Amino acid sequence: MPSVEKKKSLIFDPDQDPEEQREVRQNYRALNRRVKEQQANPNDYTAEDILKGLEEADELFNKVKQPQEATLDSTFLLIASNVGAQKARAMKSGSGTFDVDDFISQLVTYMGGGKRVADENIEQHLDGDDAVDTPLDWAKIGRKAMAKSRRVPAMGFMLGPLSIEQKKRVIGKRSKQEKSNEEARRPQELKEEDIQRSENETVKNVAQIEELLSGEDQINLFKFIINPNDFAQSVENIFYLSFLIRDGKVALETLDDGQPVIFTCEPPSDEDYSSGLKKQQMVLEFDMAVWRRAIEVFNITESKIPDRPKAETKLGGKWYG
């Protein structure tokens, strides 16, 4: 049953006792500080000290039920593994330090590589130059490693691939691309007389709307700008009206019953702005559904603003509208 209890302890518990959670964090932080001190002074600790720290971390991990404590555990394992590697590199064997080349030579011998390989031939042997004569039994050392680790074995290379085949770069000749004159087309030339110059339609229409409003006391916004027969011109009317509101020549207000009305007014002066008057912006949503609904609600049968002919422009002998 101990394995079942261990699995239960690893379940995420958002309702863990705050005091227990705080104690686990404090112990992990103290353990991390101690391992960092050992990392800074490698000669002041032994392998038994690292093992003792790992045992303490295992006991603390049984109480971990939150992501933050699990992160502290991962941090400790990372630091402890670096300390262990640092200690292994400084490990002494007899009177000399750990000899990597001698270890590889003995490893090759253990895997059935025949006699021990000399130091100068180790790299050549691992590169696979004599792999045909003396194949290495990698499964033998793999079984030894699996007995010490539960990690799933994966495909990989030890000190790089056993054989490398250098690929030669093939440089191909590029054929010169020939351009066909048949596909070339000359762009259309536009002369000054091809473009008919017209007066500025925007200024003209803004002035027309201002003149129409000057004869009204105050009028409903939708009754004034909506053209019941043309949605596009209704949108244009709002566009032209916005210039008058921006310049302060037309005011937009909402009555008590929620009805929006517009009327002409005197534009504010520089003194008004210096006295604290500020400009405000408003976004008016106007789509085809609003257009139809306004025609129905306010019973709009004709447009206050006369219909405008569609603008046409002549370019290169052709008319565009």
Task: Write a compact overview of the structure shown.
With 321 residues, the protein is mainly α. The protein has helices at residues 2-9, 18-40, 47-61, 67-89, 100-110, 122-126, 138-146, 201-214, 221-225, 231-246, 270-274, 288-297; strands spanning 92-93, 96-97, 219-220, 250-254, 260-264, 313-315, 318-320. Helix 2 runs antiparallel to helix 3 (47-61).
Q: How many strand elements?
A: 7
> What is the 3D shape?
elongated
Q: Helix/strand/pairing class, anyone?
A: mainly alpha
Largest pleated sheet = 3 strands, antiparallel
Radius of gyration: 43 Å
Report strand %: 5-15%
Low-confidence stretches: 1-8
- The percent of residues in helical segments reads 40-55%
Distance between the termini: 85 Å
Q: What integer is the average pLDDT?
A: 76
> Strand sequence of the main sheet, in spatial order?
3-5-4
N to C succession of SSEs: HHHHEEHHHHEHHEEHHEE
How many DSSP helices? 12
